[in-house]
Amino acid sequence: MLKSKLVRKLTLTAMASLMVIAAGCSTGPAKESETQRSLKVMFYDESYFFQQYGDLFAMKYPNTEIEVISTQSIYSGNNGEVMDYNKAVRDFIDKEQPDVVMVGTDNYDKLANDGKLMELDTLIERDKYDTETIYPALLEILKEKGGGKLYGLSPTFGGSAVFYNADLFKKHGVELPHDGMSWQDILDLARRFPTDGDDKTRIYGYGTNYGMSLSMLAQNISSAEGLTAVNPGTKKVTLNTDSWKRVYKLALDAIDSKTVYNPKDGGFMGGSMEEYYQSQLFLMGRMAITTGDPYILQNLKEVKSSLKDYKPFELGMVSGPVDPADPETTRSVYLYDVFGIRAGSPNADAAWDFIKFINGEDFAKIKSRTMNNGLLSRMGYNKEFDGHSLDVFYKLKPKVSADMYSRTDEIPVEFYSQFQQIQDRELAFVQEKKKSLDEALKTMEQESQVALDKAIKDKEANAGKEGKAEEGSGDAATSDAGSVNVTETETETVTE
């Protein structure tokens, strides 16, 4: 079991060093005479936790002893078998009893609805905790998924934008991109750039660092427009529709135009740092438009200092990609870590102090100096990076449908690999002119539905076997209750 049981204690010297690093913070260190407190935090890696959160928190609250309970144990021992992740997380929380619970948006709502998380609204009101400068749309997402109430906060989030090489646009006489770009807009502009030249010198209208296949491009377009191939509620696959046909045709036309970067050799497969950077065409000024997260800015900063003869270009950023039917919103905003308090925690006050701190202004001031952990939810601190304004990532309102993450665990994981194989095969037939797009979509829908029905049937059968096995073990436990009681007692003693 990979659970970490080490408790991090900062010395006065270490805390003094952190005080220097955090110069400018308005809040001073806590009084050492305060009562010592303990806090169990659920997180995926102890070292990373203290690097990102724990050390800074300990600087302000040196009287709080933190123990990190690593979630790596959730994944160990399943021998590569498909697991019910949401159930595994619930079981982990029940067993380890952490005070601070770190979860993703895919199980945040389930834990809240199951009564596993403490409501934060009353604590916010009690302490007059300022949430006015937290990105409002993120609070809306968390409240929506919490049934109208707030059960967690996320100090950072991820987002996407449209990046472009303004020099290439000016050179080829193409008008610059604008805020609220749809995929149709992006690909229409991309097609206006030349496609001649060899693979080592030519430019591309659009692409990403590692290339963009037909299925990947179609997936990105459909995600922006809120289209899903599988409905978790009805267990139906829907692909043979006008909406999906339009998405695949848009992607197919873009790929056929040769303006989208999609290297036949798969792109960079290893080598020196210089070779790596040379393979990143947008960074090297050979791609007019790309889409991605703020880390593109980090990469651009690094390449300037890494390559001797690097030629920088004028960078532009606009909001998008958006759904043309709702251009003021985006589905490309996602939360990294959502922190909540386990319902019934005996250390709820200490847990709340931690959540307040990592979502507060002092923490934001320090973290605004780097791009290592995404965009800050606390607005007004991530204003720019390397001279580029970050406002573009806050312009659009995140759009998360109520059932975007709910019930997805009802679709067996193994189905998606089968779906991908069916899709890739049929799209290859279309590109080779062996099938029409209509024929391919019809086959994709029919065969994928058969694969989904079988995967669900197999999952239910396996669940039945597991249930019988648990009943059997329960009978055995009842018939030998004495030995079970001894084992439980011994376990409690060891744990203490």
Account of the protein in words:
The chain has helices spanning 12-21, 46-60, 72-75, 85-96, 105-113, 121-126, 136-145, 166-171, 183-190, 214-224, 242-256, 273-279, 295-306, 348-358, 361-367, 413-431, 437-479, 481-495, and strands at residues 7-8, 37-43, 64-70, 100-103, 156-158, 161-165, 204-206, 230-231, 236-237, 287-292, 315-319, 329-330, 334-335, 338-341, 375-376, 384-385, 388-389, 397-398. The protein is of the alpha+beta class and 496 residues long. The relative contact order is 0.14. The strands form 7 sheets. It has a 4-stranded mixed β-sheet. A 3-stranded mixed β-sheet has the order 1-3-2. Strands 13-5-15 form a 3-stranded antiparallel β-sheet, with no helix packed on it. Among the domains are: 7-158 and 333-398, D-Maltodextrin-Binding Protein, domain 2 (3-Layer(aba) Sandwich), CATH 3.40.190.10; 161-212 and 260-330, no CATH class. Residues 1-33, 402-406 and 474-496 have low confidence and may be disordered. 44% of the residues lie in helices and 12% in strands.
Mean pLDDT across all amino acids = 84
Strand order of the largest sheet: 7-10-6-11
Q: Tell me the name of the CATH homologous superfamily of the domain at 7-158 and 333-398.
A: Periplasmic binding protein-like II
Structural class: alpha+beta
Total beta strand runs = 18
Question: Which architecture of the domain at 7-158 and 333-398 per CATH?
Answer: 3-Layer(aba) Sandwich
The best one-word shape is: globular
Give the CATH level 1 class of the domain at 7-158 and 333-398.
Answer: Alpha Beta
* Major sheet: 4 strands, mixed
**CATH fold node name of the domain at 7-158 and 333-398:** D-Maltodextrin-Binding Protein, domain 2
User: What distance separates the N and C termini?
Assistant: 17 Å
Cα radius of gyration in angstroms? 26 Å
Low-confidence runs: 1-33, 402-406, 474-496
**Helix tally?**
18
Helix content: 40-55%
Subcellular location: Cell envelope
Protein name: ABC transporter substrate-binding protein
Organism: Paenibacillus vini
Biased composition (Basic and acidic residues): 454-471
